[in-house]
Amino acid sequence: MGTAYKRILLKLSGEALMGDLGYGIDPSVVQEIAQDVAEVVNQGVQVAIVVGGGNIFRGVKAAAGGMDRATADYVGMIATVMNAITLQDALEQIGVPVRVQTAIAMQEIAEPYIRRKAIRHLELSRVVIFGAGSGNPFFTTDTTAALRAAEIDAEVIFKATKVDGIYDSDPKHNPEAKRYQTLTYNYVLTHDLRVMDSTAIALCKENNIPIVVFDLTVRGNISRAVSGEPVGTLVGGWCEVS
């Protein structure tokens, strides 16, 4: 199977790592994700990953409960590092070289984020996992994914979720919901589809980075997406809405 991309950024939500658990990390799910990533790496694709922390701590929710928003976001950043190290371990156990880089210095467990170093790791076929978000409160890990993708010249962002694309309404509550095949950045922004926050979408639009939203829970979907198969929904400036 050929690949359509040379360098990608994979955005994983924290919730993706907890599987059917209500909280935390499901080791079997992490191992499955690692296997799928390894399959892509073995095809010669350079893979960077941004992982969220919502399975452990969600800053926005904590702030809504009365916690200082900046403090809550910093705690959420630390949660993403826990996920990053867990994923690193799963990948290393199956022979995939990995480096974790964090936007908040944690020198005993990870490298600091250095753009040139991250690119060099990718060129040497190492997976790079970006932890601690952007290092700034009030910004989501979706925005971090868009930012890092632009910085490392990734050709595409793959946003791995628990649904098989973007719908015009919630498919869990509306069986008639329509799944889009392709969308423009402007359509996503003006219709407030919430696949990623508006800052992330605007960054992708400005840097012409397409976004593919697909279902992570189907084994092999990462490889299918990277090979250019029409899985999920493609968001791009040149797309027709369909």
Structure in words:
This protein is α/β, with parallel strands linked by helices and 242 residues long. It has helices spanning 27-41, 59-64, 69-93, 115-123, 141-151, 185-190, 198-207, 221-226, and strands at residues 7-12, 46-51, 98-102, 111-112, 127-131, 156-161, 182-183, 211-215, 233-235. A nine-stranded mixed sheet has the order 4-3-5-2-1-6-8-9-7, with helices on both faces. Helix 5 (141-151) runs parallel beside helix 7 (198-207).
**What's the SSE pattern?**
EHEHHEEHEHEEHHEHE
Q: Over all CA atoms, what is the radius of gyration?
A: 17 Å
Alpha carbon gap, first and last residue? 27 Å
Question: What is the helix tally?
Answer: 8
Structural class: alpha/beta
Average pLDDT number? 93
Globally, the shape reads: globular
What fraction of the residues are assigned to beta strands by DSSP? 15-25%
Strand adjacency order, main sheet: 4-3-5-2-1-6-8-9-7
Keywords:
alpha/beta; 9-stranded mixed β-sheet; 8 helices
